[in-house]
Write a structure and sequence with these properties.
Layout: E1 4-11, H1 16-34, E2 39-47, E3 50-58, H2 65-76, E4 91-97, H3 101-104, E5 121-128, H4 137-154, E6 161-174, E7 177-190, H5 196-212, E8 221-224, E9 240-241, H6 246-249, H7 270-287, E10 293-300, E11 309-313, H8 328-338, H9 343-349, H10 381-388
Helix pairs in contact: 1-2, 4-5
Length: 389
Amino acid sequence: MNNYLFTSESVTEGHPDKVCDQVADAVLDRVLKDDKNGRVACEVATGMSYVIVGGEITTKTWIDINNLAREVVRDIGYDKSEYGYDYHTMTVFDAIHPQSPDIARGIRKTASKKQGAGDQGMMTGYACKETPELMPLPIMLAHRLARRLAEVRKNKTLPWLRPDGKSQVTVEYQNCVPKSLHSVVIGAQHDPSTSQSKIREGIAEEVIKPVCKKYLTGKTKFYINNTGRFVIGGPVADCGSTGRKIIVDTYGGMAHIGGGAFSGKDPTKVDRSAAYMGRYIAKNIIAADIAQKCELQIAYVIAATQPLSINLNTFGTLNKKKYPTLTEEKLTRLITRVFDLSPGAIIKELNLLRPIYRQTAAYGHFGREEKDFTWEKTDKASQLKRLLI
């Protein structure tokens, strides 16, 4: 199908699930700051007036879970009792226990050649030429809208906004190329005294139009707080937990996903590190002009130092003009020459033993040109091209 509609969504940092992801990654960062060899598999749940921090952590350092969780919730913006959920009065439950020794024995020394995968599973990387970030357009627009909601709330451009919110865009594709926006959906938590007409006008002018103007047409439909009211939100309205927004965290549904989520997991967990590596490989392939689209699946077994399988799909977009004899089988073999896919090498290559993860826990793990996001580099593109000549 060449002409179609495709939809992706994102959520703000105040969404209950994202509150949990950010707390989990804040815990991970605090461990890695003092103990690079710490093992973290942190799971967080939240609801009305509580945060539960659980999972498995083995570390030489000490983490003040209570104050750390409150710090994250405060920074997100839940700082008023009238929200029904705020960092002053919420209860924090600490249910952490050490990592199972049966798992630990398969990992060995972190970032060494002998380090095995922390679990079995399959991970996916993806890139395409739809945007300068080499990401699908729908998820990039959805993230920008969600981030803009937080920005205009915090800088008081729209002072009546509250922390919870969601965005969704439907992009019209013609001949498999994104052309325009069919519709934009925004759900934005707000103060009870603000009229819906003011909310719709403010969000249309300060959020949607600045972000999406290039793709808006006279036919684009806006759906802003479509029930007519969004006062009760955040963990008061819905329970949250880590790992429930993996489509938001990755490619907006444009690509397959792996079996595990990211936040709260140290990089010995290939759920996270190999997904980052998959993105790194796919992005370099696209940056090298080898294909228009690239999806890569990597699979591991616990304790093994090399992947069980590598599956490459370029969706029929290989650049046959430049590389007439290139096949996906040849490209797969080339990947293993350029990229070391052992868990220890991935951690070393992408410099993952740093406290960089809290910033990944909202607005997507991919497509962000920030210095700590090493998996977004395209420094292998020239090497790939040389080896294909």
